[in-house]
Amino acid sequence: MNPKFFLSYINLHLCESYTLVGKINDEYVDIDLSKRFFDIPLDIKLDSQNTIDIDLKVNYNHQNDSFKAIPMLIWRTRGESPGKFIFHNLLRYNWFIENGITFLGSNSKLKLSLDIDHKTDEKTGHSMCINNKIMLNGFTLCRNNLEYIPNSWFVCYMTSKRGGKVNYRIHKNCFLPPINSQNRFNHITIGEKTIQLSKVLFYRKVENVWDYANCIKMTHAISSVTSYHHNLN
User: Fold this and answer.
1) Residues near 120 by Cβ (< 8 Å), separated by ≥ 6?
2) Where do the domains of the chain lie?
């Protein structure tokens, strides 16, 4: 099964009756925008150069002034394996805007052409170059769906010591271990999930979408470091 690639947006507010319609490389698409995350399919072939022509328009039955969606990341499926590869640039915060991938509002259009070069390397993993200037490195996120909950806790943890594979849990309820020498705990409980403290990479309070986006970047950065040390061994 060939992997599928997507450009993922996140909605700041959930608004019903919104869709994104138009063509991607002459293929008609009609994307539901009413959920927290929505994905724009990208026709990318592995280890090759690809040109993606996007001509989309936000459509709605009832306008909502609160509607706004921001680009989050590019990801791809892992074939028959669970989880997904996340592609991001840790150093350039505005790489979306630099390539014409803009915020979306009620009257927005997304019309652009992307030249994407996908590469696979045994040591560095997956990466892609956009328009010959922006390099996006990939990391493995061991979950099939992105999840965001405002005013919650974000806990990033290792699922395996091999290859820097990570996951995260997000929930409003989180029991953190006390920081003192008398009462020591070896786990964190978030929602109904209990995680060994030795596997926890970081945890952080998430107030809004921007906090969540920073947590994803931190997850990418830590995953890259653990993967690098694994390759050295």
Assistant:
1) 46, 47, 126
2) 5-141, 152-232
